[in-house]
Amino acid sequence: MVSSEPEKLEALREEVRAFLRENLPQKWGTPAYEPLEAGSEEQIALSKSFTKKLYDAGYTAFGIPAAYGGIERPPQEIAVIREELRRQGTPFPFVGLGRLVVDTLLQWGTEEQKKRFIPPILRGEVYWIEGFSEPNAGSDLAGVQTTAVRDGDEWIINGQKCWTSGWDYGEWGFFLCRTDVNAPRHRNLSFFLFDCSTPGFSRRPLRQMTGEAHAQYGELFFDDMRVPHENMIGEEGRGWYVAMTTLIAERGGGQVSAASGETGGMGLGLFGARTIGGVDSLIELAKKTKHYGQTAWDDSSFRGRIAQIAIENEAMRAYGMRLGKMIMSGSASGNEASMAKLTWTEQGKRRGDMVCEIIGAYSQLMRGDSRAVDGGDLVYGMLMTRGTTIFMGTSEICRNILAERILGLPRQ
Amino acid sequence: MVSSEPEKLEALREEVRAFLRENLPQKWGTPAYEPLEAGSEEQIALSKSFTKKLYDAGYTAFGIPAAYGGIERPPQEIAVIREELRRQGTPFPFVGLGRLVVDTLLQWGTEEQKKRFIPPILRGEVYWIEGFSEPNAGSDLAGVQTTAVRDGDEWIINGQKCWTSGWDYGEWGFFLCRTDVNAPRHRNLSFFLFDCSTPGFSRRPLRQMTGEAHAQYGELFFDDMRVPHENMIGEEGRGWYVAMTTLIAERGGGQVSAASGETGGMGLGLFGARTIGGVDSLIELAKKTKHYGQTAWDDSSFRGRIAQIAIENEAMRAYGMRLGKMIMSGSASGNEASMAKLTWTEQGKRRGDMVCEIIGAYSQLMRGDSRAVDGGDLVYGMLMTRGTTIFMGTSEICRNILAERILGLPRQ
Amino acid sequence: MAIELGLNEEQSMLKTMARDFLATETPKTFVREMMDDEVGHSPELWKKMAELGWQGLVFPEEYGGASMNFRDLTILCEEMGRAVMPGPFYSTVILVGLPILDFGSDEQKAEFLPKIANGEIVCTLAALEESGDLWADDLHFRALPRGDGYALSGTKMFVTDAKAADYMLVAARTRRTQNPEDGITLFMVNAKEWGIYMDNMTVMDLTRKQYAVRFTDVPVSASNIIGELHGGWPILQQIAFKASAVLSAEMVGVGEMAMEMTVAYLKDRMQFGVVIGTFQALKHKAADMYAAMEYSRSLMEWAAECVKENDRDAPMAVSMAKSYCGDSVKFVTDAGVQLHGGIGFTWDHDMHLYFKRGRYNDTAFGDGNYHKEVIARQLEANLM
Amino acid sequence: MAIELGLNEEQSMLKTMARDFLATETPKTFVREMMDDEVGHSPELWKKMAELGWQGLVFPEEYGGASMNFRDLTILCEEMGRAVMPGPFYSTVILVGLPILDFGSDEQKAEFLPKIANGEIVCTLAALEESGDLWADDLHFRALPRGDGYALSGTKMFVTDAKAADYMLVAARTRRTQNPEDGITLFMVNAKEWGIYMDNMTVMDLTRKQYAVRFTDVPVSASNIIGELHGGWPILQQIAFKASAVLSAEMVGVGEMAMEMTVAYLKDRMQFGVVIGTFQALKHKAADMYAAMEYSRSLMEWAAECVKENDRDAPMAVSMAKSYCGDSVKFVTDAGVQLHGGIGFTWDHDMHLYFKRGRYNDTAFGDGNYHKEVIARQLEANLM
Hints:
The complex is a heterotetramer, with two copies of chain A and two copies of chain C.
Chain A: H1 6-23, H2 41-57, H3 75-87, H4 98-108, H5 111-122, E1 128-131, E2 147-151, E3 154-165, E4 172-178, E5 189-195, E6 201-206, E7 217-228, E8 232-233, H6 239-250, H7 255-259, H8 279-288, E9 290-291, E10 294-295, H9 300-328, H10 336-359, H11 377-388, H12 395-406
Parallel strand pairs in A: 1-4
Antiparallel strand pairs in A: 2-3, 3-7, 4-5, 5-8, 6-7, 9-10
Helix pairs in contact in A: 1-3, 4-5, 4-6, 8-9, 9-10, 10-11, 10-12
Chain C: H1 9-25, H2 28-36, H3 43-51, H4 70-82, H5 89-103, H6 106-117, E1 123-126, E2 142-146, E3 149-160, E4 167-173, E5 184-190, E6 196-200, E7 210-220, E8 225-226, H7 233-268, E9 270-271, E10 274-275, H8 280-309, H9 314-340, H10 351-363, H11 368-383
Parallel strand pairs in C: 1-4
Antiparallel strand pairs in C: 2-3, 3-7, 4-5, 5-8, 6-7, 9-10
């Protein structure tokens, strides 16, 4: 398992480190680093430029054919690069949901579509957004009601989408809609890409329970919006199956995720979120927080709960190694991603709750209060975790998928 | 709320105490008490005689009309009696499942049936057993396949029942069987009482995972057993509804249970089980068990878990007070008993697991090993709890009942 | 003395009246208006409640009260939780009114209780400091003798409804001895005095405002000492004790409403062509929510009865109720958000109001971990 | 050095071969026969395993071994867990063979390893005493100098497979100093010596026999000391470390089999006119079981690789695997009983064999609580 050319690998390792020293923001990875506001212009701009630099340096786009801009390297080099990127907590590349589009196109796109759309995504040039959920189609995604009616070489789109992250920065998007009102369920949907500057498209924020002024999620409205037929991905009426690929990629099980060594991560967004809730920071928090004369760390129940989180983190990491290998070898169904998503988000809730128990009365203080612990990120994070177990497939849907598609239990 | 005749109540209290001093076995309630083997002849005999003494003293049979042998007393006196009985951990009266028969007859029996069967039960004269579950009818009780075919004034019974507790001491039993093979589900069953000395009836033990030699549960076989028609309870074809009353009583929600101040108790059997897992004994165990230089009680996570059990015990007790009042006033549906059963048994599992964690390597030692903690009762209890969440309605069935019959969520 | 759970006829009437009043007077539009308001207090609502006799519910008639009991008070508070009612009722009545009733001199009672009862004043407690815990070692705020009275200096944190308050009951250290529980004194301070600076805290639960309050040499008369000089700690403990019972009652209201909203949604929301309440996993979660709230109610009623009867089990009962209701309200409101799906995560849906109020109440005066430790120690002591 | 999870081709073959062999040689009829047997050891099976090279799998060829690695060994052990295989493989190979390989002198290796490898002898470890914990303070068993050697006196508890054993590796105190970890010595003792009395313990998991073993002045030669005189403690720690990895592998086998049996039952058992696997609450439990076992396998493979590679993460990896696999196997076998309903609670059904073996493995060498504490302390130390 040791490389035959260890010197070359060590040189690569040094090269990556030097790259990161030069290109990661100042103070990155230290508590002193001030994250940019998620979804702010600065954050998007930095994400785009960093994605391009990573790509130009040859540190991303693995597992994608060179014809579409992918980068080919020996597995040992990829492993070294991943390891160094992860060691620095380097943000996952791709702005917006571009990586989902790559995965989807690789499986379903025409040669033309792949050549047209994938390379700019790899270079970080386009911010992509998603149009799946609707007010009456959440867990039941196949029940989307947005319609598309054919008119010559174009489709006329009408309807509404919700829970779109990065809604206000979207330059291109993808969505699922009903192209046949008479066809049976799962056979009546099609999948499209669209340019957000198209007339008839509008958007507005959706304020979430975290309460921040800049809404992370928004609603999209299609009012006689016209999309060219060439933007349809996969066959007409088969959009449900295309969307399944997208969802698997979203939950962290796609080819791009695997090639990047990332599974179950939720794409917190480049430079937009400080890594919160890492085990080291939990221990530090527990050690510095005193109640009734003893620190939280002095309390064996907190020690046990923190150790459990550390164990689960390693379990997810080790599972990711196994899954990555399975995905690369084609022996994974992709449904495993639902497990990673389920575990990651349910753990997040427990972690968020525990942090609030540790900080006691301070669990009331939000961002904007100078006295808030960690600037309010911990409490904000606790609230956000309530959304993570809902979006991209609720925990209930994830368990259904595991039971039905992996264990083969009967559908209801 | 204070009695108008406090002296009289105090005298009653003294009377009950004197009765218990005289009639409870020596060393009862102390660790030195050696419980009789559950289901042993001695235990059954003692249970019968004690039930009779309690009845003769006027300390049981509340809530039952005097015409059927019930005892009427002012509520304040009943409260005093209950309190004193409970203070001594006095075993719940009724041998076998007699109290379920009382509840069932009170609601569904004819005048003759009530007069014939209830008084001997109150006097502890007959050991009753149950014939509900079958190998292919567990959670789906309505799917019982034991058949009864009418032949003049008699019914001819064929089939098999399982998971009958006290199977070998049963003198009388009740069972549910199919009297109409063509009628729709829930309309095809009837409910009978039968004398265990009837020809065609046989029984054999069902060894459980606890492994003890004397099986607590058994199987019953009906081979052309004849039961007189007068032993049918309720209408022909309506046995399902009769059985519902029995099940509610079994889960601790019946009238007799309420009148006795007992809810959710599982009728561990008179004198057959030492009270295990009480909070005091848990604390004592945790305080005396040392690992790596500290006692389990020194570990705040065990303290927290034991406190949680204490809280839940009080919650169940307080809920029982509310429920008892609701039952007496007719505002309870009886389905609440499923909640008590669910909570009691699921807590039992957690308690059993915790005890095993506390005793460490000793959690391997069973009854019969002289080194076993508490004579092996703790580990035996842990194993037994695995059955409690299955019998008398699994935890899943209990949750279905709460969701559908109390919260009104739709059936599947 | 028998503890009776459930409601008698009079109590049922009180409950119905409270629910109707709050449905009319504090709809969610009002609640959200108060959430956006810096002070979060409606003098109109305050007056209307006073007219119903709520603020003085448990005060004797001689002080303008209705002479009802603690259990009755928790019935009101449960309904307030159910309505996520904003405003300073809890601060005024529970944190200040009750200790004056229990520990105030006749003069103090005559001065303050009628004003509270008739809705003339709003009060609050300023006890916590930087640690956020009610623990004598953490209490450093000083009161120095000055003339006939004292001068207060220091900062109090997590003071509820301070900007609405006319008076603050302030816990200050008046002497320092080996025993940190000795030397704490409670002062009734005019909140409008010079030298008091209030800073809004940016809180999660906007239905209960909190402030950091800085005192700079604020004068207070010795006649405004509630209880004994240096003897404030047992009073603070008693405040925590009764407040915990009241917070539990609120949590029962919060949790039951969150559960009912969720069960209604399960019966209404369609996905996959059926109402989602058909799905067994959701049903079972609803069943667990129901059980959690039934037991919460049982423990809370038992605790309230014990407090009312001054039963020897009262401290244990209150800690048990506080711990269990807190754990339950967190479980139920979390499940409430989850079972509502995306809509439950929005600001516009009301579920988060319940989620956040539940968490305030769980944390205030010690969460489940704290009370379980108290219970464990008490159980151990009982053994010996 | 990259840690690789998953199996290579050779390992897949080993696994398949092991599974096939055990399916044929240790069906449940055999397992139950051994459960009823006082000694629980089949010399025939032992010989057959030796012919396959299992006992000597990781020994060098010069000692009759197959020179395979620790990861390969865990693959075998996982299959043994899956088959709830009874008998002294674990006692002999893991608890005694490995420490002799790691710490024995060349003479000792030459004496014992070939006999283990060819199935000639059975061995076990006698380390625990009354506490049941492997903690130096609890080790009181004495070895007193006697002539050229030592005489052993005292009682060892929880000794696995003692009645089947030809040799016991006995931990004894040879001197008492301030540091309880100093002065412990390991002796390889002939189990058939005069003065050794074995008493069967009545255990829950009958697939793993345990005994109390009393030693009365049992002589042992100084040449039978494994490792240094007084220096046995680090060897015991190393035994615990490797045994924990092996027990985790067994637990993965136990848990996966319990899960597979349960999923198969869910697809087969009819109630209410449908297979019960249609019910969402049962499905979701199955999903959680699956996740628990996938993560268990991941951690176990990582731990085994770390041990094999002597990676610096190995202690952490092993504690994590032991803790997580233990928690998971308890969850999965408990759910296995529950989802089988009444039949799962019977003696005749096999689920309880898995339930009990899982619990033995969880408890041995420290349960989840113990390992989480170890992990927490290590994480804290890493911070500094």
